[in-house]
Every structure is written in structure tokens, then in C-alpha cells.
Please model this.
Amino acid sequence: MRVLAAMSGGVDSAVAAALAVEAGHDVVGVHMALSRNRDQFRTGSRGCCSIEDAGDARRAADVLGIPYYVWDLSERFEDTVVADFLSEYEAGRTPNPCVRCNEHIKFEALLDKATALGFDAVATGHYAQVVTREVASADGGVRTLRELHRSPNDAKDQSYVLAVAGPERLARAMFPLGGFASKDEVRAEAARRGLSVSAKPDSYDICFVADGDTRGFLRERLGSRPGSVVDTDGAVVGEHDGAYAFTVGQRRGLALGRPAADGRARYVVDVQPATNTVVVGPAELLSVDRIAGEKALWFDGVLPGADGADGAVEPDGDGWFDAEVQVRAHGAAVPARVRAVAGADVAGADASGMEVALTGSPLRGVAAGQSLVVYRGTRVLGQATVSASWRAR
Amino acid sequence: MTVTTPPEPARTPLTVSGAHGDAPREPDGAYLDHAATTPMSAAALAAFVAEAQRTGNASSLHSAGRTSRRAVEEARETLAHALGARPSEVIFTSGGTEADNLAIKGIFWGRRAQDTRRSRVLVSAVEHHAVLDPAFWLAGHAGAEIVLLPVDGDGVLDLDALRAELAAHGDETALISVMWANNEVGSIQPVREVVRAARPYGIPVHTDAVQAVGQTAVDFSDSGVDAMTVSAHKLGGPVGVGALLAKRDLALDAVLHGGGQERGVRSGTLDTASIAAFGVAARHAVDCQPQRAARLTALRDDLVVRVREVDPEAVLRGADPASGRRLPGNAHFTFPGAEGDSLLYLLDSAGVQASTGSACQAGVPQPSHVLLAMGVPEAEARGALRFTLGATSTEADVDRLVAALPQVVARARAAGLVSGRALGGAS
Model:
């Protein structure tokens, strides 16, 4: 196969490219340039966006003996990932830019361009597994199901941020690191091949936010918008420089002038962009057991098909089925009842939605805008974006 | 004190044989990027190897040094003769970029020291970055005012604009730099007219002739310029050596300070092997230039016709080949709806090596400042591809390009549609 290896300059994508080469594919390395002015991006050797990273990716491609190109996706990145990041915070929500980057850049802009240029697949250094399974189809033939599964490496598993790509796009994705149980193993593979990035530190921050200062970035791009911090009774308890900079569940950085009457810690429990107000309250207000999702997608063979084909789940009369849900990149999945619902997007058009009723303990600080991923065991069933959460019991 | 024994200079001329004697090979496939670099000639490589096998510093006074010095001076005479200059006008450098830096900074400092009113630096808008960037560095660090001289739709300097600028500010101008021929679109500039316009104002003129030597007739003395940049590896010599030809009466400050080599203007131990090879290559390139130009013109014209047959939407950029004001080996197109980097990748994987022609930032091709200066819209400028022919180019190279091109352009256009960037539709 002709494989495009997306090479960030980090160790994971370098080893993924190496494994694609060793599997006998015709591999070309591509580094995505995501900012025109790279000074705006984080410097140092920690991520995927600096000139050093582009040089590391080039060097890895040299060692592997594969052609290497840089593709300028900076306009698309600004128009999708960065624009979404800003508008979501402005709307009082908490975006996950890595999810949006997978949705709009890696598995859309990059994948579509690669496909148009004649590549069969895009290989990345993500930790997740795409499993294909053949099942009987309703018409008596055989149907190939494409499933996304967690990596056996729990700490590194990235199925949560990949689910948004959906089954059709993941059909053209290749995750050579999917079966690796530890990062050390990947580093050892890199060292064994003489890849100089073998000891490069992992990246954690948002790549386009310098020094991890999200609030500073938002203030620079959205401007200062002073407003009030109120408690749940509406009493003003402090000021802020822009409600957009706050996230539900946040405790630090509130700078409240006086302590709560009961002396207990206060958290952001709501962000109201219409009035530029941040609402604070006690921790128990953060606990939710119901979550609504929008822009839902379902993987192949999960829901019973319209043609009568069996699905992986057996919904009850109201459409509910048992599963587990994860609402944070580094959180655990918790048991829940889930159902697919019809919905409408902000413009009123038909859109798929999702409803979740937690069956175990409530979750704290479920922020709108985060990705909601439904699992059964290691298998991803579906994904949506959190639109609301509340306490029902 | 350490006593070192100088190695014995070779007593007999070295015979160059085996791998060293083979003519350097063109890269595999169809290599259509001779403006980036072109294979070294066998004679130049032999001269390089012979000198590299000797030991001697051309500044040393003993016999080993004299041997090196002699090789350097012979090359200086050869180069000067080939380019219509006097040997004393040749300043060897590490290449075209250093020679351009020396010219822009050295002439600016030298001329302004003579006349402190002179702070303006006039450069054409289509200069190579090795001229533009030192000029803008002077603006940021030495109080220079940079004037970008406009060009027409063919990339040729607008002489009326130059004359108007000089009429208004000629007495405040320290330097004019206009390239002999453009590296992207191959347009030949009216350098003699620039000299004629500048002379009444006492303004020194520099020209970057890196792309021109060996392709078209270049004569330093006859052109009237005060300084000229040349580079070895564009004409069959090695990478890493070039020269600035500079008139003896030109006020030229040093950029590299040290041992005082090259008239005190360019310090640094002379690279005898590279310089010797440069001399051999330059003589050969200039001697062969008329026949080579005729052959490459025919080959290039054939390439242009056949590319247009494959893709009637392709737009040839730069001066009309029939005008005689275009380098014989240059063909430059924009392909509407396609991105240059997609075209480049697809051609490369089909064994055809070309260039987008413009500078990269960390590997990202930028829309060419040359095309933008010519008035090409940015979306169309993204679809640029440059083919440049040289001594080793053959009809088979063009055949291979033409065979690969239909699918390459179709695929690049499909990729352009999904990326939504290259929107320069057919007009």
C-alpha cells in the first residue's frame, strides 16, 4: 500500500512510520505545518509544532530512507481548530482541541489530500487499534465491520480523542503502535533503529498555546471583558476579566474577595456567556448523573441496522442500552445507560444526539464542549460532544 | 613550541582514476532542477581532487604554500578571463550568498562612509533572498532605507520607475542591485540600462549573475556594473565556492574580518581545491555557452509546447522565450487549481525532479515573492513549478516529464479541490 506517515517530530510517529516501512508499505513522511508564524507556537522540543520538531521529523525520515515533505495546513488549522477553540470558550464551553484536530486536520484535511494524491492510508503514532471483523449481513452476504478499540497501554490510550474520526475515516487510518503495551517499548524500538527522537519528552500542552497559558492566549485573542462572579443566589462575590476563561469544575484562579459564608471551597458551577457571568458554588453542585450529547456518531454494527441487521447493543423499548462512558481524556469510563436520539443543531437542522444516564456514582465537572465517548469494554461504540449535564436523582 | 613537519608536496601530477575519474552523474530519473544545482564537470572534479590531495595554505610563504597560491591565481586569471574581468577584480567567497552579502553590506557601508547622505538601497522586487535579506537587515541595523523597484508582468525591471526614483533621490542612494537573470522565471534584466541610469548620480551597481553565467553571455567589464556575484555550483563547479567581481575603485567594506586575504575584503584561508575547480568549470561553461544555449533553447521550447499540450490551462510565467530575454534552460509554469508542493511530490514519485522555485520556510513552500511582484494572484502563485535544464539535460528528460504530467496534474488538482487552497481556476 501507499502509506502517508504523519510525522510530528516525536518518537511515537517516528516509530509508527518505521513499522509501516518494515511492513513493506511504500511510505512517504509528511510533517504538518500548523502555524504560519512558528514563533507563536510553543518552542522547545516538546510537541509537534516547532521548527525543531519539523527538523526531528525530517531526520527520522532520513534514517528510515523515506521521502519527506512538509504540508502547510496552517490556514485550515486556524479556521477549524483554533477558531473552534475560541468560539467554544466564548460560548461558555470547554473545547478539546486535540479532538477537533483529529476531526478536521489529521482525519480530514490531511487524509483527504493524501487520498486525492493516491495514498491508500495515513499512518499516525496514536495508541489505539482498528479491528476489522466479518459478520453476516442482512442480505445473506458478508459485511466487514471496522471497530475502534482501546490500546492495551491504558496510560497512553488515545481512543477517546480518535473516536470523533468515525468508522469511514478510520478505514483509511493505520495505527502501527496500537498493540504496544508501554511507551518504554516504543522508545526502545526507536533507539534500536537509531532514531534520535527516542528520548524526546512527551508533549502534554495544547500545541498552539505558548507555555500552557490558556487564559493568556484567550485574553490575547478575545480581549479583556470584565464581568462579575456571582454565587448561586446571584450575589456578586468577585470580578473576572472574561467569563470565557472559566471552565465548569474550576477552583483555582477565581480570586474571590471574601470567603463563602460557610467557609467551604467554591467552584465554577456555570459559565453564562450571554451575561458574561461566572457562577460559583459548592462542590456538590458539580455532581451530575445525566449528560446530553450532540453531533453523535456510531461505529459500524453498534446500533441495530434499519435493514434489520443485528447490532452489538440490544436497546430496550425506549432505546436505552448498557455501556460505559468517558467524558475526559484522562478519565476512566463509568457505567451508564445510553441511547441514540434525534436532535437538532443550533440552526435547527436534524442532527443526531445522545442521552446518557449514569448508573453508578455521579461524575463531577462534566463540561459542555468535551468529547463524550461510549465504550463497551475496549470497543468504542460511539461519540458525541457534551451539550448539557445535570443531576436527575 | 611545536615543530610540525609539512607533508611533502606531490612531486608528480596526480593521475585521477577509478571512481574519481568518472564524470559526476546526474541524479537518477529526469533531473529538471539545474538552477538549484547542476552536476560538476569531469574536468572540474579532476581539478578539485588533484588540489585536495595536495597540502598547502595559499597564504604560506614556503613551497607548499606557493603551490597552492599558484593554483588559486591561475583559477583567478581563468575566471577573470572567462567573465571579462581583471584578475585583481576577483574576490573568492564561499558562494553566491556570501558574495551577495558582501556586495550589499560592503558597498552600502563603503559608499555611505564617503557620503553620509546616501542611505537608500535600491533592489528589484524579484531579487534572490541572498540580496533581499541583507538589504532588509541593513534597514533594521544600519539605518538603510530599502526601495523595492517594481517589475512588469514578465518579471522585468520597470526602468521608468527606477529613473523616477533616481530623479527624486539619486543623491541619497548608496547602491542599486538588480540581478542579471531571475532564478525563478528566468527573465533577463536590463542591467546595462540600470548602469546608464545610475552613473550620473555616482551610484554603484551590483548584479547577481549566479543564474546567468554559462546560460547567456556575461561580460563584467562590458556590462559596466561595479560588482557582480557568481557561483561555481550553478555552472559545473563544486558547491561552497563563488566570487564577487568588484572594480578596484569601488568602496567596499569587509564583512569577514581576519587574516586579510582577498584584498583585505574577505578574510579566510582560500579553498584551493574548490577555487581550482571553479576556474576550470567557469572556463568550460563560458566556452560552451553559445552551443549550449542553442541546444537548451530548442529543448526548453519543446518542453513548453508539450507541457501546454498536456495541460492547456498551464500558464508560462516570465519573459516570452522568443524575446531572447529569458534564460535558455528555464521554463516556469503555474498550474491553476493545483498546489506546487503536490505537483512536486507527485513528479518526484514518478522520477521527475523539479522545483516550486520559491523559498521554503521550514520546508513549507511560500507563495513566491517573484510571482507576487509580477502581479500573479496568490492562489495562482501557489501552483508554481519550475523546470530548469542544464548541460546534461536530454530529450529523454522532457519525455519522462511529459509522460508523467497528465496524471500528476489531475491528481494535484483533485488534492487542490479538497484542500481548498489553490483556487486559481482556469481563466
Summary: The two ends of chain B are 77 Å apart (CA to CA).
